[in-house]
Amino acid sequence: MNRLRALSFLACLGLAVLASAPPAAQSGEGQAATPGDAAASAGTPGASDLWYRVERLNPGLGQPEQALDRETPQGTLFGFLQAIRDEDWRRAAHYLHLSELPAERQAEAGPGLARQLGPVVERGVWIDWSEIPDRPDALREGGGGNAPLAGQPRKTLPLATMETDGPPATIRLDRVKPDDGPAVWLFSHRSLRSVPQLYDRYGPGWLERKLPDYWRQPSLFSLYRWELAALPLAVGLIAGVLMIARSLLGRVARRLPWSWARQGAESARTPLALVAAAITGRLLLDQAVSFSGPVTAVLSPLLTALIVVGLTLAAVRAIDAGLDVVTYRFVGEIDDSESRDQRHFYTTIYAARRIVVLIAFVCGLGIVLSQFPMFESVGISLLASAGVLTVVLGIAGQTVLGNILSSLQIAIAKPIRIGDSVLYEGHWAYVESIFYTFVRLRTWDERRLIVPVRYFASHPFENWSMKDAKMVRSFSLHLDHDADVEALRERFRELAEADEDVMPDELLKVMVLEHERRAQVVCFYATAKDPGTAWTMHGRLREAMLAWIRDNHPEWWPRDRVVTADRRDAEAAAASRAPENS
Questions:
Q1: What is the reported pLDDT for 36?
Q2: Which of 16, 173, 296, 445 has the greatest number of beta carbons closer than 10 A?
């Protein structure tokens, strides 16, 4: 029984060892076979998913003169660029998939295609070597569940999508396996169809093609010698165009017959000159010279950004010029003496300006980000993602964002308008301007209060012009108890009827609202058409009432009364007899 148990244990142990042993399949010179090689040797149906099969690989080129590393995408791309730098066009042709060309034409057309494709890749493709796989199967190792091809081998690898005169063209690498050799990575035959068009757009410009060979040799930072000399010259040319265009636009602006046109052209001449300089730079890049990929990847989006910024600033300044015209021609002086409709119209123009600037900023930022190769896939999506945008802006500029949103809230709800008269934290002032981040108030004594929009919108204030500009003002006088209130009422009515600023059909009253030990407090009320007029009106009426009392009834001023001992005793005796009489 014990022997039987021992034999059973040994049998189970042997089966476990056999099950855990690795397969003995080997490929090549003692190296483990790749998934593609294993699938091919087994003849499985999945082999076609790992490469493109051909009978022979570029038979018209013959065998390469030296060993080529084409096993991985990174090796193919590096070897091709090195062959281009060495100007070895025949060796570079071995990195191309020429299956669409007849075999008899491959030896002649292959080097020509390589000569054209090389500058296109160098100048038009932003190469991030960390994203170029160094595996034969080009398997994407990172990304997790967010990458659709994570953990799967690939037989095609797109490098970049480039603009042409027609549909965009994609430069890609394909994994190709001939029947008589191992699988290699080559530039796709589909990409080679667009090489002539791409070369016309991204290849060397006419000025570069006329340079001697010395200037077309590599130098510092993998840049050509002519590029190191041309960069400062290009910057100087763009700066010169900027100054000349600004001067010419200034002369044109001064000769315009309309004042509003002169003002708008003068304000917009610097942004327009910036646009002209940036367009000159783009023409220089597109027609005369073509810099290498790293320089083009920075310079081209930068020039695009300058064009967008210049056009945006020109539009904003043109709107500002139109706003000034409306202000002085239709609205006049910024106060609440004008009608509600005019103040509402002026505030609406300010709101439109803020909305235009915000839309131009968002669209311009999306265009600029989309021009950078590193943002070409995330620039627009980042701006379109409200969650990401809110988090990023909320953390980076919570105060600025809060002021901008409060400004848009004021522009839409209009709790205040340009020209409204407000009482804000004890200051009587007019709303002079509403900007993105602050509100500018002009006090009655010509001081300026600068209040952050967010703070202004979150604290209570009085808007004296919300419904109507007319306003009731009052003043109080402390007079003796013997003052005749009816006489005061008659005199105040006479003064109000004679004052041109008092509205006759509105509130006009004289009332005693308080009673103190020494005096009674008499309040006088009158109405004017707007707060500014009411302010001066109530001052004039106060002065007139004080002068009338001083000249006619000086005894009505408050007095201190002295009570003698005999009178005090008599008042006390009268008070003690009062209960008996009752």
A1: 37
A2: 173
> Where do the H-state alpha helices sit in 21-101?
35-42, 73-85, 89-93
* Residue intervals in the chain for CATH 2.30.30.60: 338-468
Amino acid at 464: W
pLDDT at 566 over 70: no
Enumerate the CATH 3.30.70.100 domain ranges in the chain, comma separated. 471-556
Q: Are strands 471-479 and 520-528 parallel, antiparallel or unpaired?
A: antiparallel
Task: In whole angstroms, give the CA distance from residue 109 to residue 106.
Answer: 5
Q: Are the C-beta atoms of residues 520 and 471 closer than 8 Å to each other?
A: no
Average model confidence (pLDDT) across the chain: 76
Name which of 7-11, 89-93, 550-554 the model is least confident about.
7-11
Question: Rounded to an integer, what distance in angstroms lies between the CA atom of residue 164 and that of residue 187?
Answer: 18
Residues with Cβ within 8 Å of residue 335, at least 6 apart in sequence: 419, 421, 430, 530, 532
Residue type, 2: N
313/264 Cα distance (integer angstroms): 12
CA gap 186, 163 in Å, rounded: 22
Contact 153, 50 (CB under 8 A): yes
Q: In what order do the strands lie in the sheet with 427-434?
A: 448-452, 438-443, 427-434, 421-424, 462-463
- Do residues 569 and 519 lie in contact, with contact meaning Cβ atoms separated by under 8 Å? no
Is the pTM value of this prediction over 0.70? no
Q: Which residues contact 566 (CB under 8 A, 6 or more apart)?
A: none
Partnered with residue 522 across adjacent β-strands are 477, 512
Q: Which amino acid is at 385?
A: S
Q: What is the pLDDT of residue 64?
A: 87
Query: From CA 437, how far away is CA 448, in angstroms rounded?
Result: 16
Asked whether the predicted pLDDT for residue 2 surpasses 60, the reply is no
Do residues 95 and 76 make contact, with C-beta atoms less than 8 angstroms apart? yes
> Helices 340-371 and 293-326, interaxial angle, to 10°?
170
Name which of 373, 206, 221 is nearest 290 in CA terms: 206
Pick the CATH number of 471-556 from 3.30.2350.10, 3.30.70.100, 1.10.10.10, 3.40.462.10: 3.30.70.100
Fold of 338-468: SH3 type barrels. (2.30.30)
Token duo for residue 226? 């002519």
